[in-house]
């Protein structure tokens, strides 16, 4: 349990290299871990796209970053990309907009996530946490893969795809995903969809999906001989506004407020995975792995999360669901 709430020695001011010339996309970047991740990347020279739903929140986040670091003003290094991960169509549109603007993508950080919340279906008919935490990112990532692969072929490229998961991936409510019905399983007894235990099971399931997706993505990249590094991670216990505002037992909120990391500290493992030179130097060691604060390889550690057949099935089912619902390919 030490890695959940321990205070790290990692220091982004010292440990992030110069990122000048790199283009990075961060989902859920207007608040919490995503905001802190984006801010540090921009400070170190990258052009960062803050991919999120609301223009006003995105622009307020950008203004806040520029106020804290005035040298970023007028540099066009912080950009808003409209993205609603609850919609596969929106995710595809966001990727298309990005592709129309940029000729390279060095780092994709799939950070956004819906926490342990009530059971709802998205407008496209998918359980909302699965839609946001998995399928939206699946569509975005696969649509951006051609550009990521093209960037990876450039001299001295170091392309990475980072997926923010959670330690609860090890305790999913469901581990088989062959149909849309599996995605939409409330994982509860009748009338108890929205009790905390059911909400937490569904959340754990989506974090399990994050790890399986990363595994299969890395396998496919390796099979093609594409030098892109995919990493999933646990940021640690973080007292973000979203986590504190959840309808959870009171002791959970107290524990977060007393012992959890700040949002900046919560961003450290994402920043390590996305930028640390050690990852590039020891790529075979890190690719396809699950890491915990800060930069420690910790898995995947369960048999279910390591199962290659399940990872392939998840990918194939995701492709089918995307095609059936949107009428287009993933």
Automatic annotation (TrEMBL):
Recorded superkingdom: Eukaryota
What Gene Ontology terms describe what this protein does at the molecular function level? oxidoreductase activity
Query: InterPro entries under this entry?
Result: NAD(P)-bd_dom_sf, SDR_fam
The record, for Gene3D superfamilies, names:
NAD(P)-binding Rossmann-like Domain
Which Pfam families does its entry note? adh_short
Query: Keyword Oxidoreductase, does the record have it?
Result: yes
What UniProt keywords apply to this chain's record, in alphabetical order?
Answer: NADP, Oxidoreductase
State the family named in the UniProt similarity comment for this chain.
Belongs to the short-chain dehydrogenases/reductases (SDR) family.
Q: What is this protein called?
A: Uncharacterized protein
Q: Origin organism of this chain?
A: Hericium alpestre
